[in-house]
């Protein structure tokens, strides 16, 4: 178990975590009215009781006195405890990388306070400047990054040219990154610097030790393996073992749907293998015959890649997505593509074509590529080697290797790797930032991604047990016993009406505090899910 109190003060959700250094979203507060400084000056923002500040940090932590700085936008939901009980900042990161911590606190600040205790200032960051972009205008960005849908991944299996095309496309992104980064900021977008930023924030609050709740940025469903090995794979840009549980997650859709019955699962068939076969047939049909869809919000093509992404997306958040996915698939199978399309669409982009990228513009793709690929070793693979990498990966997962392993192709395009950045090895007992975010701290938190629940991170499935451990951990430093397994109070395919009636039944038998925490956790989960979807 953990011995150093420094380790105790850190909690890692499932795998690896990033604060959202750079992200944007709709905002009611104009951060440009604030001036960055080395100390925290709080200003009321958004809605009471939220407060905001801009903290100045070194751009290059190895040359802190060269005068080049970055500013981190910080929002807090202030502690209401008396001073004697005040415990400082608790940093929350919704993951991504690219999800806005500011949006999380703006959306659910009070719920964080309920879930973790009023002793903390609950803190989220994002909107940092200078804002990086690979593009000169927002129009160029939207033209080059397919954002008409929720499609995140390319697929190796879409056609015989998709690997080569994706490869060339990512080379282009990597070259645009260099072209649009004359000041060399991108090299500093890395996990080690983000970890240093978080420590800077903590210190600016007058505290020594980081208190952190991060949601994994990893895109793979429900992986908990040895965190140590996992991290070394991350730093070698080898995402293969991320897929160890992907096929099992997919299987829960098939078996859950078969067991749930036609009432609860619209894509129902009598056996799991029949559900699987029906989905395969539907996928093949869409591959042969993609469908044009027009909705009031947007228009696009429901093709193989769209469908595969829609299914994978649901695997990340099965308790909230499986039933809807089943409805979308059933409608598609009966000839109506609109529902499944609409579940994954984003509004058609419109803009003034000549407008430069605004000060706080969307750059989730850039943040993702810069951090995920900039952290790791340079990927030097040829197209043939990437093809081999994919084929090797199929031995680990047949269900989504074609999508998930395209991350390596993404990284093959990215050429900015700061000399001296942290690249492992991970797993030493006594490490400093950012190693202590990983490895050892995973063990005590196995409840939030164990074999008992499906999906990615504890937020996708509400569990009283998990959240009560979180609170005990943050408030008292108490760790759950090794190997603790929490069950989830949710069903993959709830039968109509079951959720509310069960919630009512439980209300009478449980104490109010637990119910309050559960409701808060549910709202946090829903806010974070929205942020992450947008981050993609
Ligand atoms: C690739 O697509 C074909 C349909 O064209 C399908 O039969 C096959 O299972 C897919 N392979 C993988 C690994 O997804
Ligand atoms: C990636 O990791 C897998 C699983 O550990 C391994 O089999 C494979 O050889 C690795 N590939 C590369 C290119 O390092
Ligand atoms: C297809 O589904 C959409 C969304 O569920 C619905 O609004 C529409 O009426 C359906 N179209 C047809 C032709 O049934
Ligand atoms: C790519 O090549 C560079 C320079 O030779 C090397 O340092 C790096 O380790 C290589 N990347 C991988 C993933 O092997
Ligand atoms: C780890 O750090 C503690 C406290 O600084 C020290 O007492 C201990 O010897 C270190 N252990 C190792 C293996 O370096
Ligand atoms: C923290 O410890 C105190 C004293 O043991 C206990 O009363 C309290 O319930 C604990 N708080 C949490 C959130 O576990
Ligand atoms: C309600 O919850 C209980 C456990 O508390 C569970 O056994 C039961 O299946 C649930 N009922 C429905 C209809 O979901």
Outline the structure in words.
This protein has 536 residues and is an alpha/beta fold. Helix 8 packs antiparallel against helix 9 (304-316). It is 40% helix and 9% strand. It is globular and about 60 Å long. The protein has a seven-stranded mixed sheet, sandwiched between helices. Strands 8-9 form a two-stranded antiparallel ribbon. The chain has 18 helices and nine strands. The longest helix is centred in the last third of the chain and has 24 residues, at 512-535. It has a domain at 25-131 and 190-236 and 422-490 and 500-532: Rossmann fold (3-Layer(aba) Sandwich). Strand 5 (88-93), helix 2 and strand 6 (120-129) form a beta-alpha-beta unit. Bound molecules: 2-acetamido-2-deoxy-beta-D-glucopyranose (NAG) (7 copies). One 2-acetamido-2-deoxy-beta-D-glucopyranose is lined by residues 331, 336, 338-339. Keywords: Signal. This is Peptidase S33 tripeptidyl aminopeptidase-like C-terminal domain-containing protein. Residues 402-486 form the Peptidase S33 tripeptidyl aminopeptidase-like C-terminal domain. Residues 1-25 form the signal peptide. It comes from Mycena alexandri.
Q: What is the fold-level CATH name, i.e. the topology of one domain?
A: Rossmann fold
CATH class of one domain: Alpha Beta
Strand order of the largest sheet: 1-7-5-6-4-3-2
The level of helicity is 40-55%
* DSSP helical segment count: 18
CATH architecture of one domain: 3-Layer(aba) Sandwich
Briefly note the structural class of the backbone.
Answer: alpha/beta
Rounded to an integer in angstroms, the radius of gyration calculated over CA atoms is 23 Å
- The low-confidence parts are 1-26, 216-229, 428-452
Large-scale geometry: globular
């Amino acid at each position: 178990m953990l011995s150093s109190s420094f380790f105790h003060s850190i909690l890692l959700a499932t795998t690896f975590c990033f604060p959202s250094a750079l992200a944007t979203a709709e905002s009611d507060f104009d951060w440009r009215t604030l001036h960055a400084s080395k100390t925290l000056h709080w200003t009321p923002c958004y809605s009471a009781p939220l407060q905001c500040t801009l903290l100045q940090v070194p751009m290059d932590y190895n040359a802190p006195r060269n005068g080049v700085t970055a500013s981190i936008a910080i929002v807090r939901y202030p502690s209401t405890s008396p001073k004697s009980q005040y415990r400082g900042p608790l940093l929350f990161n919704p993951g991504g990388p690219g999800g806005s911590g500011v949006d999380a606190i703006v959306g659910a600040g009070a719920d964080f306070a309920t879930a973790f205790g009023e002793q903390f200032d609950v803190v989220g960051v994002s909107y940092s400047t200078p804002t990086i972009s690979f593009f000169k205008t927002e129009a160029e960005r939207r033209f080059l990054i397919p954002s008409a849908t929720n499609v995140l991944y390319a697929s190796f299996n879409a056609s015989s040219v998709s690997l080569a095309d994706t490869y060339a496309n990512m080379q282009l992104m990597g070259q645009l990154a260099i072209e649009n980064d004359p000041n060399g900021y991108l090299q500093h977008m890395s996990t080690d610097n983000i970890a240093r930023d978080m420590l800077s924030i903590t210190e600016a609050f007058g505290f020594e030790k980081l208190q952190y709740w991060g949601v994994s940025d990893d895109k793979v469903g429900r992986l908990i393996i040895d965190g140590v090995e996992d991290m070394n794979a991350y730093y070698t840009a080898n995402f293969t073992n991320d897929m160890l549980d992907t096929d099992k997650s997919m299987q829960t859709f098939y078996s859950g749907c078969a067991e749930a019955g036609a009432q609860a699962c619209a894509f129902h068939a009598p056996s799991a293998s029949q559900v699987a076969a029906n989905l395969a047939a539907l996928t093949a049909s869409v591959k042969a015959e993609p469908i044009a869809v027009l909705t009031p919000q947007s228009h696009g093509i429901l093709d193989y890649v769209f469908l595969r992404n829609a299914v994978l997306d649901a695997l990340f958040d099965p308790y909230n997505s499986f039933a809807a996915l089943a409805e979308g698939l059933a409608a598609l199978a009966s000839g109506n593509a609109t529902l499944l399309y609409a579940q994954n669409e984003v509004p058609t982009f419109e803009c003034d074509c000549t407008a430069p990228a605004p000060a706080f513009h969307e750059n989730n793709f850039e943040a993702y590529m810069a951090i995920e690929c900039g952290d790791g070793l340079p990927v030097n693979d040829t197209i043939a080697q990437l093809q081999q990498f994919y084929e090797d990966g199929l031995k680990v997962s047949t269900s989504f290797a074609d999508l998930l392993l395209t991350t390596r192709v993404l990284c093959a395009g990215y050429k900015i790797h700061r000399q001296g950045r942290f690249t492992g090895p991970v797993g030493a007992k006594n490490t400093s930032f950012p190693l202590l975010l990983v490895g050892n701290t995973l063990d005590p938190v196995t409840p939030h991604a164990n074999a008992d629940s499906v999906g990615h991170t504890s937020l996708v499935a509400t569990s009283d047990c998990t959240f009560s451990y979180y609170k005990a951990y943050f408030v008292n430093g108490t760790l759950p016993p090794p190997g603790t397994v929490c069950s989830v109070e949710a069903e993959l395919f709830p039968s109509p009406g079951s959720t509310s009636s069960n919630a009512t039944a439980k209300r009478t038998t449980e104490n109010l505090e637990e119910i309050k925490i559960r409701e808060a956790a549910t709202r946090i989960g829903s806010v974070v899910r929205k942020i992450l979807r947008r981050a993609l």
